[in-house]
Amino acid sequence: MLPKIDEDLCIGCGACVVACPLKVLDLVDGKAKVVNPDDCKGCKKCSEVCPVDAITFE
Questions:
Q1: Count of CB atoms situated within 10 Å of the CB of 52
Q2: pLDDT averaged over the chain?
Q3: Residue 58 has pLDDT above 90, yes or no
């Protein structure tokens, strides 16, 4: 299960990048992106810290 990032909502604050213990996310062109999908364990820490609820899991 990978995080889905709504680019329209993402403000590029980087909170999710810092919160992810496995470095799955990074900021690319000012928006959060999944850069290491194979490392994601679905812990949802990124979505828990997002101040604008731009990250969901499907």
A1: 12
A2: 97
A3: no
Domain with residues 3-57, CATH architecture:
2-Layer Sandwich (3.30)
Q: Which pair of tokens denotes residue 44?
A: 């949802």
Residue pointed to by tokens 């990048």: 17
Per the listing, tokens 């604050």 go with 13
Alpha helix stretches (DSSP H) within the chain:
15-19, 45-49
Tell me the domain boundaries of the chain.
Answer: 3-57
Reduced to 3 states, what is the DSSP secondary structure of residue 49?
Answer: helix
Residue pair 45/18 in contact by the 8 Å Cβ criterion: no
Model pLDDT, residue 12:
98
- The residue count of the chain comes to 58
